[in-house]
Amino acid sequence: MNFSEVFKLSSLLCKFSPDGKYLASCVQYRLVIRDVNTLQILQLYTCLDQIQHIEWSADSLFILCAMYKRGLVQVWSLEQPEWHCRIDEGSAGLVASCWSPDGRHILNTTEFHLRITVWSLCTKSVSYIKYPKACQQGITFTRDGRYMALAERRDCKDHVSVFVCSDWQLLRHFDTETQDLAGIEWAPNGCVLAVWDTCLEYKVLLYSLDGRLLSAYCAYEWSLGVKSVAWSPSSQFLAVGSYDGKVRILNHVTWKMITEFGHPATINNPKIVVYKEAEKNPRLALGRLAFPPPRAAAGPASTTESKYEIASAPVSLQTLKPIADRANPKIGIGALAFSPDNYFLATRNDSVPNAVWIWDIQKLRLFVVLEQLSPVRFFQWDPQQPRLAICTGGGKVYLWSPAGCVSVQVPGEGDFQVLSLCWHFSGDSLALLSKDHFCLCFLETEERVGTTFGRPGDHT
Amino acid sequence: MGEWMTVTDPDLSSESKNICQYTSETKMSPSSLYSQQVLCSSIPLSKNVHSFFSAFCTEENIEQSISYLDQELTTFGFPSLYEESKGKDTKRELNIVAVLNCMNELLVLQRKNLLAQENVETQNLKLGSDMDHLQNCYAKLKEQLETSRREMIGLQERDRQLQCKNRNLHQLLKNEKDEVQKLQNIIASRATQYNHDMKRKEREYNKLKERLHQLVMNKKDKKIAMEVLNYVGRADGKRGSWRTGKTEARNEDEMYKILLNDYEYRQKQILMENAELKKVLQQMKKEMISLLSPQKQKPRERADDSTGTVISDAEEDAGELSRESMWDLSCETVREQLTNSIRKQWRILKSHVEKLDNQVSKVHLEGFNDEDVISRQDHEQETEKLELEIQQCKEMIKTQQQLLQQQLATACDDDTTSLLRDCYLLEEKERLKEEWSLFKEQKKNFEKERRSFTEAAIRLGLERKAFEEERASWLKQQFLNMTTFDHQNSENMKLFSAFSGSSDRDSLTVHSRPRQKKPHGVSNGSPVCTSKLTKSLPASPSTSDFCQTRSCASEHSSINVLNITPEETKPNPVGREGTNQKWSMASRPGSQEGCHSGRSSTCTNSHVEKDDLP
């Protein structure tokens, strides 16, 4: 595993281009485009203000930079550095900006969700979509880029509109049986739309592309409901994480629940491998025992190395007692993601913030639990293979694969607190983002990572 | 109190009756009433007697008193004090004898009365104590009754309180329920109110939004604009098209196409899955048929028609299906056929399995193979035991190895290594030392035992010798006494005597064996003696045998006597096997020596017995 040198970064804005050739990063009001392999600067664009959001177009030809404060979007072309485009939303304001899947239209959401403006880069035409709903995830495109679903609110009722992205024609418009719609998400095959209600009510609705209600699912009533939703890449399963600390897997044939994954704080089954991150005492091998221990002298915890240990059968995980009288309590399944090959599901229970649970989807049971020393901030699957990268806001990045798991210290002077990460689409490299810096981590394809530490032996 | 009295009354009456009987018995005088009077009067009388006596009789009134006494006595049924006069006028003479008799009787009576009185007094005392006891009991019971009554009252009070409480709680519950109901109503009304308000707010918000929209958008805001250097081409290279009804229709078409594709894809997948499942079913069916076919003959033989026909049906079905091979056609009939045949076969299989189960259970019920079939528990126990044994063996091997190493270490005489080993095996060594001392002690004990045994053997030998000598002298004497005595008879006698001491000799052989092994014998005479004994013993297998072979017994005995010499030096060609056996057994460890030698002696016994018979 190799690390690049550390580059400057602001607002955690660092993105690989979809074709994997470029890496865009922002430093204040400057946009830097680098070659992924050489990391040499290819282009340097200067925006009008501090960049708050960047996004690559699907064909990697353009990149948009949004400056919400000024209601501005600037678009840059990689092919023609002199080409520029500036979209000003004026007094309407701007809260969100994104590309349409064709890479020739930009969708800007104005303040107060008054409307969505669709700007075209090909023609002078501007389209408006009124009544978008302000919610967690109100806009979603199918994977093939043909259709867009948009959550709307009209006459105190939730609606979903399906647009054809090629000409922004409204294809379907239907109201949903939700109290207060919270999110929508297309299945990867683009034929089924999952709609879930606000956390006050557990309700998951599934609509066909043509607007028919396929199924409605409700696990329980009178309690906080859905917190997170994820489709499996094969569109076969819909995983619904809820505030009761369970993940329910729905199947695509009957849209009924096949199984329920509880997240107990104690793991008794000896078949389940529990990896516990443990601090390694540095310099112990040299036989020099400093007093007071060097950890205290060194100060930040991130400098001490750590390793994974396999905990024996009854393991109790650190749990957080939620504060009941506060909004957005730290309970429930806050994050869940399927591995690209459909074999695994990674989840995080917010009341057990240090643990990542990895479930075997073939056998529909818990497979591995990773317990970190500090709360898990983010995790993401390698796009090519079942390999999970985890960061906890410390100086280490953690990788898990069925062969085992490993904790890697990010080298370099000073702290490098990994707050977020993103994979290159080939799975060969990984961008690690800290507050002010980023670096690339290159993973050797020959050597499998899992062989270094904490290998359980017979898990394949 | 009254009750108690009535209870004890009969006792008293019976007592008195007893006394009555007693008195009536002593005096031959009649009625019980009278005797009771006696009894009653006797008590004060006895007390007054002395004081009365002094004043009763004086010098003057002797006559009167005598006559009075006589009168009294006669009235009480005593014989008269006077002599019976011949004539009427003559003064009756005082009969001293009668007086004395009367006195005596009176005294006896008095004593008896005293005794009775004593009895009655003790009785009275007893009854008094009984009464006291009962009174105590009564008081106690009364107390108990009181306390229990109090308790009961307390409990009743508590019960009442609890009931009261319960009632209160019920009331509270009801109140709470009412409260809950009220709150629910409030919540519901609030919720509706909230929803209503929300809707109103949202509408207002929408209105505001609308207004804002108008204000912001219709102002011809110059700022809302896009500056582009030049427009870029579409990604697909096509030009944008106008929105018309045609495009709309096209979009619809496309959408349905996508949906259709998806459904087709899914259908294909399902078909594939179905085909797989069918294949599995078919295979299962085939396997079932093959499994059940050997069974088929038996039911037919037993004229079990139903199963037989079902099987044949199934076979036909299978044949049809395989002939038609229409797996691709998922038509109803095929499916039905397949599922039906599978169902049938499954039924057969089930019945078969059930039958087997029944058989098994029957066998279990009969308890036929209960001994043969080892229960799982036993099995486990056995394995556990074996494992333990293995463990022990391993340990033993280990210790042996260690000992060997130790020995080697001492043999090679390397000081440092031995030291090292010593420090490693110090504990082990100590343990061994302990064991060694134990062994030594045991050995000592054994030696002691052996010595005592040999001593006993010697003593016995000496005794035997003396006995032999005595017998010889006796025989000689007899011989001398009866010269006409048959030679054979004398021999017979001798052998019989030898036989009668066989049990003694058994023990002798047992104890003498160790001595044979010992290089330093205790005495020179004894080995000869014992060897002779062992050899002479087999000559008498049993009395009946002996009687049958009596004619040749003399020769055998003589032969045996000839074979007195020690076995190892001059083994008997016939009994060699026997002796060999004996020695091999004797070479076993010392601890088992006793029993082994005992056994070996029996071995030799049987062996030589065989020798003798032919």
- The helix count of chain B comes to 16
Shape of chain A: globular
Pattern of helices and strands of chain B:
HHHHEHHHHHHHHHHHH
Radius of gyration of chain A, whole Å: 23 Å
Distance between the termini of chain A: 22 Å
**What is the alpha-carbon Rg of chain B in Å?**
63 Å
What characterizes the major β-sheet of chain A? Answer: 6 strands, mixed
Number of DSSP strand runs of chain A: 41
Distance between the termini of chain B: 103 Å
The largest β sheet of chain B comes out as: none
* Estimated helix fraction of chain A: under 10%
Please identify the structural class of chain A as seen in this structure: mainly beta
- Name the beta content range of chain B: under 5%
Explain this structure.
The complex is a heterodimer of chains A (460) and B (614). Helices cover 1% and strands 47% of the residues of chain A. Chain A is mainly beta. In chain A, 44% of the residues are buried. Chain B is flat and about 190 Å long. Residues 1-49, 299-324 and 487-614 of chain B have low confidence and may be disordered. Chain B has a domain at 94-173. Chain B has 614 residues and is mainly alpha-helical. The interface between A and B is large, with 43 and 39 residues.
